[in-house]
């Protein structure tokens, strides 16, 4: 879960180059990469006569998937299909066949085979879900010449490595409307993610309508909640895409919102519970010693369970520091009476009672890894999130849980809200080189990327989730040997832009924010800056959780910037290559970037000033000055002391966070200036 | 309604410069322009201490509006407010006071006064809806210096000219998900539109879940329909924004979808009814002679009425050509028996019966102007859409209806799907210089922009509605004297980009489509072209309704282009000015554009070709050649015969529609080449 204050480091077993070889030898842009793929001669041409048929009998879900496939293919190719819907029978030139309609769960067979020849595409699978996976792969195979679009001849046999491939979205800290969820569900399906973990409650809000306890949504949501009908709608939408929905109701901690509505359930009498506006770990906690607490959970969960058909049900259980328990004498007395030595033991007492409630409702309880204590039954599911920085050993709780007999899911290493590079997530292997028995291995269900929403709004959430989550999806689906970062990045770029077909805003909202910043002036100078700036990482934006409130502005420059800034890697690589290989001729790419930045401040200066862009002025000016001097030095092959001093002084400034971003080419600029200093 | 085949011309009373003088003398970007506005000394500074209070007692709707106001202001200014929600009491520095909560209807008092001084903003109104209008105006007043944001000192007394200010969205021809509707409702509220006319059924689909007649959504929607819960959600969302929702169930024509589900209601036995995939006027029509038809409508409307609390209920009634009636002997016999001489009389017979059904359900029946016949009771409401091209006289049916005693609403002149200039709509005055009695004037409720969706998808609909509809909103709200087109365009530009705050995609989706067209290559050359190209107008795209099916691709170049192309007007004006004033010195603006286009093909040529961009190649090449030659001629002041011939040949090509767009600078290029020819 979301340890806000403590700075986490990515744990897991980092796959170095030593482990496995890249198996991706083709130029195809499929992601996640299939289990087995062989390119074949031939091409299937996509033209107006293309048709698709589903030969199996019951096919509601796959019918929709096939229709959406046709729409996206039309959108991408501009081809006007004569038949816009799947046909009955076997007459079509894309044929889908499967044995049965799946009920979604961890046992679902998601495998499929796909074969493309000159005049026929066949997708075969055991379940409709497998067939839908085949359609997603087929769409990604779309290629073109100058004159036509086609699918290349191919044979694919595919199945996932892990059965649980999830994305968690926190809708408590910033509410995300149904439309945001739906477009992200579509994107999940496009990269074969199959679990949407819906973090519905937290200190900052309770986001579900409750008819049994209406104060929950009335008093603890600021009016921003899902009606039960909307919940059903989202769950049905996900199911149609082959995605399971796991709700999370976080207890006993992270309970400020619940206690705003029902303070009598709290652990500290007289405390003024209120919806939390800041970020962090807070004290309000359910009282585990009162009968009404369990009565409340019994009634609430009984109401919620029918909305969420999946058998797994997440109760959070994380980051309860027990401060209010310590401050409550009745709770201390209760602990003594029941021989519960620590707050952790008290929480286990609570968890065991909650699990009984859920078991009676035919649910399997899941919780963050704090719930794994010696007394906790192995029927619960452990969601591993903590690593070395939370005092856990290397390997964390995932392997531990599996060995102890728990089903388990990994999120440590996949905290996308930390805004770290795609590479850093991609190279986290959930299992690594640990040796496991078959039973232990089967208990490792998979993993989840976690989108905590302290700093994201509907305007920016897509750019925080995508495209990195597509690479994580590959980690969860593909074989562990698939670890070539450069190849992944090439494919990711293609996959990322095609997600725009689904309405995803991760690319287009950059310009929306920059237009807003400039009050609709020419944004090209800001775009140039945004391509070398990344939002501050690892919770160093919003220090201590109190720089931003939930209703602060999130349309600042940092919100327009994204991880893996577009121009940074090519420039940084060009500099490295230039320095290591320099034979006296100047690298064209290095100069191209330097000159672009050298002239950029000219454009920036023409902008009519306002308080949103002013903080960037010095950065823009410094960067242009440095880039200009370095460019001149590289071309003239001379360099004055004064120029060097100017560069150093400017670099000191650029090396600090500015306006909640870091400039991710500074290191390369420093290298370049040292090189120039030594050389000329 | 949607006369697809017949080419309409804009009717109404065009306001020339002669009528009224522009009253907009300030530099403010308010739209629609208020009734009375006077600028005052002083500035109210927007900083973190800004607070807002609502002093009236019941204020659910206005509380949400005030909260959203704070969010949008934060987004726009980057100011981190200490208080993110309206406060109770009178302590705040923005104070809202109103007398009562309105029930939305044509009698709702929407007026307000707004005053801004150095340290206080007050919004006063009779109803909460008026207060919400005041908040929208206040937001539009936001200004900035280099250091801060502020509202300028001002006093506004405002009220609408017309009580019915609508936008119709056709969700039948292309379904529009709830998210699309919600963001457009937000945009409507931002420009004080107050009626959402929801065209829910047509030949191409029946878009509402019916529990009484489930085949309607099951068989006649391709799975694309609103559940009843979604309908309620949209209606509630609109109500919270002060917007009424008028549903339209189009009968007896435009009935292919209904008859696909229930063919027994049709007028032609044995006809194979099917969801229509093309555009146009089709024959399937309900049978007005059968009792089951009225039983069906009685039951269907009884089911639908509770979903739509507004008293007005639209039954379409347009474009019934009666072909299937003519072909049915029983219907002919029925006409004879009931002395109904024409199909129009038969339709009136039908309409009168339908009106009784609706009256019994406490609804007021509204229909397109074909329903206005001598026998039709004046309790119905006439929606005027036809003009000169449909055989009606100048002035059409609006004034006629008002004089005959019907309430009436104008859409002729506001057919935004015709993709004509904002100016052409803006200058249509619903009443013009006609003299009316007070009673007649009161019966003219207002107008509606109509977004028929033959050629729009969720990807493109926003750019077809906005920003032009904001100017139409001003026509409906503001005084008739507000007719300065240049000033309107200046304000419109500002209003348009701020709509992006609401998630509107009218600006950002251009690049999405261009990225899709190029398979994610550099789109700058295509952007340059898109700024001088407009999609074909007045239904000349999709000739005869059969070039495109409903599921054809709508992510072509034409879909990236918009009306009032960005570079066209400034270039065309610069050319006119240059030609009329030329004293031998070359106009810098003319040259700037010519040089931009002259070099643009260099960029275009670097694009890897594909079938979506290939159709533009010749256009791009021709344009660059012409622009290069003209630029050279203007600078060198010489011009060869060969060059002239090349230009003429190229202009002939550019003067034709290419890839469903027209190049709207061709006329200016022709002028320029003639000028050059004569001069040099």
TrEMBL record, chains A, B:
Q: Does the keyword Iron apply?
A: no
Q: Which UniProt keywords apply?
A: Glycosidase, Hydrolase
Source organism superkingdom: Bacteria
Gene Ontology, cellular component aspect = lysosome; membrane
Q: Where is the Beta-hexosaminidase bacterial type N-terminal domain?
A: 28-159
Give start and end of each Glycoside hydrolase family 20 catalytic domain. 162-479
Entry's Gene Ontology BP terms: carbohydrate metabolic process; ganglioside catabolic process; glycosaminoglycan metabolic process
Gene Ontology MF terms in the entry: beta-N-acetylhexosaminidase activity
Q: Which residues form the active site?
A: 319
The record's listing under CDD domains reads:
GH20_chitobiase-like_1
Q: Which family does it belong to?
A: Belongs to the glycosyl hydrolase 20 family.
Protein's name according to its UniProt entry: Family 20 glycosylhydrolase
